[in-house]
Amino acid sequence: MELKGKKYRLLFTLNALEELQDKCGGYDKLPEVFNQNNKDWVKDTKWLLTMLINEGLLEEDENAELLSEDKVGRLIHLGNIREVQNAIFASFAAGTAGDGNGDEEESGESETGEVAAVQEN
Q: Distances from the Cα of 29 to the Cαs of 22, 24, 63, in angstroms?
């Protein structure tokens, strides 16, 4: 996913799935995170994107400098929120489908936005 001219790799690891489960009750609740009837959808989207970016950074370098939610929040705006949500869905799909060889290069690089529909009001 590209934000403000920089590419970020989103990685849905088991750690990310566990955190999502703890916070939202399960990965099957992912569409509900983005539902605008969820009073915390903005906060939850920012949290989830931060976690996935940081998982991608840590997978490449265990000593990587992690991004804060505030920093990630400055990269997201209403003009790119759908792209962000679609990239999160794409990362989830790649992280759960996998190809068995450990190469998840595609997990955060969806630019088409065609992976999943995002619920609106």
A: 11, 6, 31
